[in-house]
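Kindly inspect the following:
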Amino acid sequence: MLGECMLELQGEPFGQFSQAYGGDTFNTAIYLARCMQPQAATVSFATALGCDPLSEGLLQRWAQQGLSLELVRQIPGKLPGLYMIELDEKGERSFHFWRDSSAARRYFDVPQTPLEARCHEFDLLYLSGISLAILSAAARERVFALMAQMRALGAQVVFDNNYRPALWTDPLSAYASFARAYELASMALITLDDHQQMLGVHDAEAALAHAQKLPTPELVIKRGEAATLVRQAPDASWQSVPTVPVPRVVDTTAAGDSFGAGYISRRLRGESAPEAAAFGNRLAARVIQHRGAIIKKAYMQDLLS
């Protein structure tokens, strides 16, 4: 898992805040580690942190969550990023970020990262559009080279299209980077709203038609409350997997991240794409009924039995 974990503040401006931590690929890493139990699977998170008490506190908590820390770089003088979440009455989020100088942006500022040095040891690489967005152009090139190398070694390479316009200089730059990622990945998880926003089209059906033609062999298209669409191979037909209604949405943070973890965990266990999507939808439905990116394991224990 390649990306960033930031400190998280939830609350109202000038009111009380609760403190946690999260980030798109990090959230997926945590949920994947949970979903792969009791199998002997190691989930490592590749990122950079500082050498400060906040960074040390994050490392301790990551280890307690079951993540391997072997791919983490610690950079003196740098700090974790920070974000604040505001929720509306429907549980929908708005974010405020302080991440311009976060340590994670500097992960590739060495001749060889721990991830590059040990890539031959892993069966799967997972990254997102945000993973690419926070890196320099030169670092992105190294990520693309890493994706190609791991595919050549027989590993799965999964790309999630999380698109945040504020992290890119313009949509064309994002489109070019995403296009390369789709070419190199063996599996792509597409949030249709993000794909539509990046394309700059008002017609959701046009965005869907474009997404269905992406070159990645295995495609998953997430459409909010609408059924998830899956195509397990280039010559396979599209299949529709219903989402799971919930009595009340509390917080949609990590809905897509948890879905990705659930989906990948079941595909690694040999289940079909529709079966994996059904589990991913069940897990995401559970997550959005609780506040925060990482819900208590007890809240999802029955799904793991």
